[in-house]
Amino acid sequence: MFNAKIWKLGDDIDTDIILPTEYLAFETVNEMKPYAFSPLRPDLASKIQPGDMIVAGHNFGCGSSREQAPEVVKALGVSCIVAKSYARIFFRNAINNGLLLIEQPDLYDEVQEGDMAQVEPGKEIIVNGKSYEIANLPDNLMEILEAGGLVKAMRKRNGLD
Fold first, then answer.
1. Distance between CA atoms of residues 46 and 33, nearest Å
2. I need a labelling partner for 139 at 20 to 30 A (CA). Which of 71, 91, 121, 147 fits?
3. Within 10 A of 69 (CB to CB), how many other CB atoms are there?
4. Strand, coil or helix: what is 36?
């Protein structure tokens, strides 16, 4: 269980909004971080604090399959993203990079940016005294998330770490 400040975005947040193409030339994700979400909100990356969460509408992560999009969100310290729906490639890339994604159809319409949420993965999210039920992810995906990503999970499973 964890507490998180909410940053609210809209529908169809594509990978070009999450991390514009011109910043892919940087060598590291840390160099890319200041430019996350810059086409939408140029100052957002500087305001997000470790442990904060993003709440969004439908189709979060649509667009290209660039793996740097979920990597930069995780590098910002975002604890999880809660959206009405995700682009499937983004969903898998995020899980493979150890970023928790939660689908919840009602939360977006009922919360405000700056609200505080209490998140219990696989059970519920509580905001302003109201509980929003969330589904549990399958065990294999939880193993990946708990390890910090797919590569780390496979290294652990194979006794390499």
1. 9
2. 71
3. 29
4. coil
